[in-house]
Specification:
Number of helices: 0
Radius of gyration: 13 Å
Number of strands: 11
Strand content: over 45%
Oligomer: single chain
Length: 115
């Protein structure tokens, strides 16, 4: 069955960087598009970035544009979210999402930006 496993979250100071990973199994990774979402405390889950199956179409939510980069390694069945210049407001649980069928989600990884 489809499985998505995120990793890479943690505690970082403002201005710092983190790289999140999402490893997928149970489907043909090389033909799958993917999205990153996040959910901050007390807020609804929001879309952050998306990458097409071929990696040639990548889009970002405005608040992360220029700071976050999403990319994929088909050889490792893994998508990545490189997050630079982190801000307090980036604190959230980050999820990867496979947008097929009714949607598949990973378990989430906590990112906390704090001084």
């Amino acid at each position: 069955q489809v499985q998505l496993v995120e990793s890479g979250g943690g505690l970082v100071q403002p201005g710092g960087s983190l790289r999140l990973s999402c490893t997928g199994s149970g489907f043909t990774f090389s033909s799958a598009a993917m999205n990153w979402y996040r959910q901050a405390p007390g807020k609804e889950r929001e879309w952050v970035a998306g990458i097409s199956w071929g990696g040639d179409s990548i889009t970002y939510e405005d608040s992360v544009l220029g700071r976050f980069t999403v990319f994929r390694d088909n050889g490792k069945n893994t998508w990545y979210l490189q997050m630079n210049s982190l801000k307090f407001e980036d604190t959230a649980v980050y999820y990867c999402n496979l947008p097929r069928d009714s949607g598949y989600w990973g378990q989430g990884t906590q990112v906390t930006v704090s001084s």
